[in-house]
Amino acid sequence: MKVLHTSDWHLGQQFYEHSRTDEQQAFLDWLVDTLASQNIDLLLIAGDIYHTATPPASAEQQLYTFIKQAKHACPDLHVVIIAGNHDSANRIETAKPLLQLFDTHVVGRFDRQAPEQVIKTIATKNGTAHVVAMPFLRVSDISMTSDISYQSAVAEAYNQAIESLLANPLTEQEPLILMGHLHAKGGDISSDSERNISIGGFESINANIFSQHADYVALGHLHKAQTVAKSEHIRYSGTPLPMSFSERNYQHQVLVAEFDGKQLSSVNPLYVPRHQNVVLLPERGGADLNSLCDMINELKFDPNTPPSYVRLRMKSSETNSQFRAIIDEALKDKPILFCGIERVSEQAHQQNEVFTDLGQVEQLDPMTLLALAFAQQVDANEPVPDALKDCLAHVINSMDEEPNT
């Protein structure tokens, strides 16, 4: 049995006000071809299908058209989709009856009163797999109290689902696959793209919550493809294309897991072709105005490829008040999608860069902002009290929750 694991498509994303529809469509077209050429039996999409809870109609159309085309190219294909923290659980669930007609199983929300609902038993032409399709778990979905941490409540949700599945023993030929959309402890995050889905004392989940019975764990949320806890069978597939400039050097990929009966025999990456270049000038630090213009003029472009995304980093010491007009002239008539300018202040230690672009503030970790405010307004010599961290954590989590109506 061959399983393809992918996640974090973020359909509908506007990249610095530039539409990514064509770029994302190129990935979806490549994926349809890959599913066919690799003879994939089961496709797992581990959350963050959309970039926002209210995606544009064009993004939803992309998803549904992809599923239709994938089934046409691979009539025996089965698909399992879970909601991520960017997705609306209700929106994902709404499409369930129609998508079932295409052998596509979607799970938007976990019901602790009916944990068996996240279990999907998939009978492919090359064997049967049992999938625990656990979506992103909001506080309202799990049994979290003042005495039970978020991590413990998440572990309990997985245990409930697995226990309901193992009530009837599995055969030795049927693999157990867990899905999840969360931050597993120890995973690398990109610096400006991945908002902590829970913060404070329950921001990341220890990998030991995944049952010893699991033969493969397909995770979403972290954008960099990686293993977790040095376990080859616990994986993030990462995003199929860079979601920010900090991800420009990632090796974007999907993962193909092959099973020999229940045994996981291999996990191999398939690298996604880069449809549009993502360029940061300069790569490190900042540059003066003349140097930036020289860098722009030195860029090489392939006339047969789409325009490149370009973001500039200018030294904060640059004093020319006409810098924007000069840069616009340098960009003129070039196949560039301009993504703004960062003002960069070089500090004593070259590895540390301070960005004065206010657009970056919203992407800072809330706990970091709390620590800065506490140091400035209360006491610079004392750590932030745990009670205050917990208070902020619950506020952020309550903002992330969506109403059930």
TrEMBL record:
GO terms for molecular function: 3'-5' exonuclease activity; endonuclease activity. The keyword Hydrolase applies. It comes from the Bacteria. GO terms for biological process: DNA recombination; DNA replication. Residues 287-377 form the Nuclease SbcCD subunit D C-terminal domain. Keywords: DNA recombination, DNA replication, Endonuclease, Exonuclease, Hydrolase, Nuclease. Residues 1-224 form the Calcineurin-like phosphoesterase domain. InterPro entries: Calcineurin-like_PHP, DNA_Repair-Maintenance_Comp, Metallo-depent_PP-like, Mre11_N, SbcD, SbcD_C. Belongs to the SbcD family. NCBIfam families: sbcd. SbcCD cleaves DNA hairpin structures. These structures can inhibit DNA replication and are intermediates in certain DNA recombination reactions. The complex acts as a 3'->5' double strand exonuclease that can open hairpins. It also has a 5' single-strand endonuclease activity. PANTHER family: COMPONENT OF ATP-DEPENDENT DSDNA EXONUCLEASE, NUCLEASE SBCCD SUBUNIT D. Heterodimer of SbcC and SbcD. This is Nuclease SbcCD subunit D. It comes from Pseudoalteromonas byunsanensis. The lineage of its organism: Bacteria, Pseudomonadati, Pseudomonadota, Gammaproteobacteria, Alteromonadales. The gene is sbcD.
